[in-house]
Amino acid sequence: MTNGSFLENFRLPLPAFERTERLGEQLRALWEAVRRQESRRVLTRAASLLALPEMAAPEMRAALLNAMGAARLQLRHYEAAERMLRLSLAALPDQWMATRLLVHVCEVQRRYEAAYDLLERMQAQPSEPSWDEPLTETEWHLGMAALAWRLRRWKVVGTHVRAAFPKVTEMPPALQADLLRLAFYRERPAEALAMARHLLERQPDEQAVDTLLQTFVQQGWKQEACMLYRQAYQRYPESERFRRRLVALCLQTGAVEEARRLARLGVLSMDVEP
């Protein structure tokens, strides 16, 4: 919990411009230049290609405009990039690539509401061209969760994270930590307890466990803190720190007999780090 939020810093990967099998030779060369980030070369060559008759076909024109938009994005010409990408969408609405690039433009400009609306519209969006790069379902949900996090739409965040990873045990620890943060933000002690039980077992040492569990104490959730310190003490049965924490929490939550039993195990030193 001491590190920054995963979702706060998460961005979807940019399209790779790799599906060139069915592109013509000139477009293929242009996309390869995009991959090499030869942005100015892309823009110079693209200008001459725009007038070619074959570029009037919606798929080819959209592929060309996407390359131009990506090149502008690489140069940080965000307004010009957005113009190219919106022209691409006008030429070929049923594609993911232009929208993915537009979402990135909005993100770097901190236009999170616009990025959220763009990505939300992509749910169940068909992908027609052979060169397109639709997101996986997991990627789409993570992208939505990240944007909802920046917009402080906490309920939406939880919905998308759980849709991306229905089984908590298969969820990356960084996302588990974000769901714990979410439970604190939404004042949901039961949800926080469930997530902390998973995180506790993944902490590398006693200090990391204590740091995690102290967030419950600071939140004033003494019952949940007491349950978690029982789990921590089982993991570290020689820990005087955890025994001392548990005695105090047992007394505060009414588990007096448990506190007495723990206290009888040995003198509790006051020199232990608080």
From TrEMBL:
Cited Gene3D superfamilies: Tetratricopeptide repeat domain
Superkingdom to which the source organism belongs: Bacteria
Protein name (Swiss-Prot/TrEMBL): Tetratricopeptide repeat protein
Source organism: Rhodothermus marinus (strain ATCC 43812 / DSM 4252 / R-10) (Rhodothermus obamensis)
